[in-house]
Structure formats: C-alpha cells, structure tokens
Design a protein that fits this description.
Mean pLDDT: 79
CATH topology of one domain: Arc Repressor Mutant, subunit A
Shape: flat
Order of helices and strands: HHHHEEHH
Length: 172
C-alpha cells in the first residue's frame, strides 16, 4: 500500500504503528485536543488508515525478525569459528611471531563454545518427565510416596495410624 495521500493521516498511522497513544498521535499530527478521543477513533477506523497501520506494523515486525535472525546467525557463526580455532593444535609464538616450539589446544574454550551451540540448537533438553498433580487429586499412597521422597529413611516425622511408627501416616 502506498503512503497515504493526506500527510496528517500518514503521520498518524506511523505514530500508531510505532506504539504511540491514540490521542497523543492525533494531537501531535495537528488535530485539536478537544474531541481528540472520538476523532482519533474515527480516523483509526477509516479503512485506508487502518490498512496502513497494519502494513507499517507488519513491516516493523518483519524487520525485527530479520534483525534477530541476523544477530542469531552472527553469534552462531562466531561460536563455530571459536570451536574450529580451539579444536586445532595451535603453535604458540613470541611477541615477534617466532615459534616457541610449544603447541596448545584450548579444550575449555572449545567445550564451552560447543555447549552454547548445543543449547541454541536445543540438543540438551532435560529428558526427565516431571508430573505435577494437585494434592487433592493424589491417592494416599501417592502422598506417602511424595512426602517420603524428601525424608531420610522414609520417615516423614508424622504420626502413623496404629501409633507403632509403621504404616501410612494418619490423615485428618
């Protein structure tokens, strides 16, 4: 959609698309403050203005997505370069560039870069499934098992039904 013919309408659409308040945008482009809410609402509901706002917002979102993708690609590219550099044996030179006869392999930096790459690619997801249940929905056995998980030796420290210290805890 081309730029709106009326400059005020275009400026209003751009302000709204960029997140400005409806009334503020209406006044900023030169309309009177009196009746600004009604006037701004009417202007925003005009099909050509509404479509232009949507177009501008969509373009803004597309630019943000593109920028994020470029940033992410840049970081991933740099991490891969770090991995490649750190994985090779590298000859150490003195300040004049002369070989010292010592070779180095930076395992820690390579490992960290690989870890970051793996996390970004979603390779290290926790494989355990954790069930969440309301205590009201649990059976007595499930409650006993749940409470017993944190206690040493399985003793929850709560009174038992038969008073002997054995059996399931009493529920009141």
């Amino acid at each position: 959609m081309p730029v709106l013919v009326k400059r005020r309408w275009e400026a209003f659409a751009q302000l709204i698309a960029s997140g400005s308040n409806l009334i503020d945008a209406y006044v900023i482009v030169g309309y009177a403050e009196k009746g600004a809410y009604a006037g701004a609402s009417r202007l925003k509901s005009r099909p050509e203005v509404r479509d232009r706002i949507i177009e501008l917002q969509t373009a803004s979102i597309d630019q943000a997505i593109e920028k994020a993708a470029l940033s992410q690609k840049y970081v991933l590219d740099r991490l891969m370069a770090i991995v490649e550099r750190c994985m090779q044996r590298q000859e150490i030179t003195d300040s004049k560039g002369k070989s010292t006869g010592v070779w180095r392999f930076d395992a820690a930096a390579a490992t960290r870069a690989l870890e970051l790459l793996g996390k970004q690619l979603g390779m290290f997801k926790d494989q355990r499934l954790i069930g969440v249940k309301r205590i009201d929905d649990m059976t007595e056995e499930e409650i006993v098992a749940f409470l017993g998980e944190g206690a040493e030796g399985g003793d929850t420290g709560r009174p038992h039904q038969n008073g002997s210290g054995e059996g399931p805890p009493t529920t009141h």
